[in-house]
Amino acid sequence: MPRKFLKRIMPDHVTMREHKHMRRFGEKIMAPELWHLNRRSVSAAIAIGVFLAFIPMPGQMLVAAAFAIWLRVNLPIAVMSVWITNPLTMAPIYFFTYKVGAMLLDVPLRTHEFAFNLEWLWQEIAFIWQPFLLGSLVCGVLAAVAGVILVRIIWRLVVINSWLKRCDRQKSQQQNDPDNR
Hints:
Layout: H1 2-9, H2 13-18, H3 39-53, H4 60-71, H5 75-81, H6 90-105, H7 118-176
Helix pairs in contact: 3-4, 3-5, 3-7, 4-5, 6-7
């Protein structure tokens, strides 16, 4: 089951409770619902993290943690899934969201030469902020929905496969058992 895999890679809640930095957050962060590994909790956590990954703002992990606590979904998964946008993927993802927003607003793309100064930055932001934010919201919502669907489908397929293997094992044990003949 996906739960077994996720339990292997995720920190244990007892270890997290005893960690010196996590003690600052008190007991609220140690609520059992925030550490459960079930299809609903994991898919909702993925949705939160993936949506926030597309939103250009500082502190995405803190916002994901706050939403996970508020909505009572898996905290580590929500925080980890924000890292879809990382220093390597941020530029292509945000350029794509800008292109999507420009297409939706029917505005031409601005692809001028890059100049590393504050004047150039403010000048460009004045032109691209609307398509960029619209594209970020649209791509974030679509990616979150796709993440939920994908997690639920994969979870379901793994559970069905596990169930079928268990049935096959039981059948082979019954066939090999001399008392059943």
